[in-house]
TrEMBL record:
One Gene Ontology molecular-function label: O-methyltransferase activity
Compositional bias (Basic and acidic residues): 357-367
Region (Disordered) residue spans: 347-367
GO annotation, biological process: methylation; secondary metabolite biosynthetic process
Native source species: Aspergillus aculeatus (strain ATCC 16872 / CBS 172.66 / WB 5094)
Occurrences of domain O-methyltransferase C-terminal (ranges): 159-295
Name listed for the protein in its UniProt record: O-methyltransferase C-terminal domain-containing protein
Length: 367
């Protein structure tokens, strides 16, 4: 590849087309725009993302089974909020109308394999924990006969139905709809398919889904330099309402000796891939907080989770529209002064840089 030549030719550029891939292929279009004009290759890329997710270190089951969606102490709406329908006395009445669905917008979600995994796990919990209440989602809160709240997280969560809106480029959505129709016709995962909506959307433009509970970005922002990652984040802000969360599932560059050297090497290899193909980079945890702070200084990192065995980190940023968040509101490009961290399954990620980090911008790295 021509990565070194690209660095010499465009030393300070953040444009995605100023990279080794473009010099090698003699094209002026960024790789994703070029793929948009090559449906066959775009389809292969989408399928490759599904294959990539099957690797143990990147499996979507961590998102569905390990990520603490129902936690009341760190992230997304607490169980009582997810379950709320107005009158707490009606919480176990199967005839009570559901409140607005708990909505997850899967931004850049490809063919929807992550959303399908999440919904399938959610529905399996609903089926296993229904305790004889007429429907899968009929028990709405803490029932009188249930004394251990830990055994009833799924039941309490069930009252508010979950839906996922998967957004991606038009040609990817077209392929995803064909796949969904085929699965529905064969009665495969019919309950899952009924809860997924596909929507063509350019994530550089204003988010059209307003008031969702979670805006989820998995392996999206690492494809873009800070200039364009900021555009993606700022496009979300008009859609955020109080209590909304932005959940990022992406790679985090560790400091020296923070993880096994093979994991560190793999992450740094990907840092070079991002540079070569998109003039982008992987980010350390402090880079992520700085990025969100530059997008809107009221964003707060509520939690960071790195499940054992996973090569990616989950980061949860509280909505800048929550009433209690007033951090640097007058300094739109300031890094938040307050950083809330609740880090599980790793003892080394901190809110301050490591004492001896190996962190370089892409322009500082050598092959």
């Amino acid at each position: 590849m021509q990565t070194a030549n690209a660095i010499l030719q465009y030393p300070d550029s953040e444009e995605p087309e100023h990279c080794g891939w473009n010099i090698q292929t003699r094209t002026s279009e960024p790789i994703f725009r070029a793929l948009a004009g090559m449906p066959d290759r775009a389809s292969l890329f989408a399928q490759a993302m599904i294959w990539h997710a099957q690797e143990p270190g990147f499996s979507p089951r961590y998102l569905a089974e390990v990520f603490p969606w129902e936690s009341t102490s760190t992230l997304l709406p607490p169980v009582r909020e997810i379950s709320a329908i107005g009158d707490p006395d009606d919480t176990c009445d199967p005839t009570t109308p559901h409140s607005k669905p708990f909505t997850i917008v899967d931004v850049g979600g490809g063919l929807g394999h992550i959303s399908r995994a999440l919904l399938a796990h959610y529905l399996s919990l609903s089926e296993a924990d229904r305790h004889g209440h007429g429907t899968q989602e009929s028990c709405l809160g803490q029932c009188e006969h249930e004394t251990d709240p830990r055994e009833n997280l799924a039941v309490r969560r069930r009252h508010r139905p979950v839906q996922c809106i998967v957004q991606d480029a038009a040609q990817v959505v077209s392929q995803a709809l064909s796949t969904a129709q085929a699965q529905t016709a064969s009665n495969a995962n019919d309950m899952v398919e009924s809860r997924i909506e596909f929507q063509a959307h350019d994530f550089f433009h204003e988010q059209p889904v307003k008031g969702a509970d979670v805006y989820f970005l998995r392996l999206v922002l690492h494809d873009w330099s800070d200039k364009y990652a900021l555009q993606i984040l700022r496009a979300l802000i008009p859609a955020l309402e109080s209590g909304a969360k932005v959940v990022v599932n992406d790679r985090v560059v560790p400091g020296r000796h923070e993880v096994h050297y093979l994991v560190e090497r793999e992450t740094r290899d990907h840092d070079m891939y991002m540079l070569a193909f998109q003039n982008a980079r992987e980010r350390a945890l402090e880079d992520w907080t700085a990025l969100f702070g530059a997008a809107d200084a009221r964003f707060v990192l509520s939690a960071a989770h790195r499940p054992a065995g996973l090569w990616e980190l989950f980061m949860i940023f509280s909505s800048p529209h929550q009433q209690e968040i007033e951090i640097g509101a007058t300094q739109s490009n300031a890094i938040p002064r307050e950083l809330h961290l609740n880090i599980k399954h790793t003892s080394h990620y901190t809110s301050t840089p490591p004492s001896d980090p190996i962190r370089h911008s892409p322009k500082d790295q050598t092959c």
